[in-house]
Amino acid sequence: MSGSLGGAAAGHQRTALASIAAAMFLVALKLGTGIATGSLSLISAGIESSGDVIAAVLTFLAVRLGGRPADEDHPYGHRRAENLAALGEAAILIGAGVFVVIAAVGQLIAGGEHLEARWYVFAVIAVAICIDLSRILVSLRTAEKYDSAALRSNAFHFGADLAGSLAVLGGLVLVAAGVAAGDAIAALVVACVIFAAAGRLIYENARVLMDTTPQDAYAQALSAVADAAPGVEVQRLRVRESGGRYFADVVVGVPPAQPVLEGHQTADAIEQAVHSALPNSDVVVHVEPGGRDLSLREEILAIALAAPAVREVHDVNVFERNGGAIVTLHVKFDRDVPLTDAHRVGDRIEDQLRELPGVTDARTHLEPIEPAGRAAHDSTSSTDLEQQIRQLVQRTTGQPARDLRALQTRSGLVVLLTAAVNEQARLRDAHTIAGQLEQTIRRDHPDIVEVVVHTEPGPTPTIQGPPS
Question: For the stretch 86-96, what's the b/e string if a residue is b when 16 or more beta carbons lie within 10 angstroms of its beta carbon?
Answer without folding.
Answer: bbbbbbbbbeb
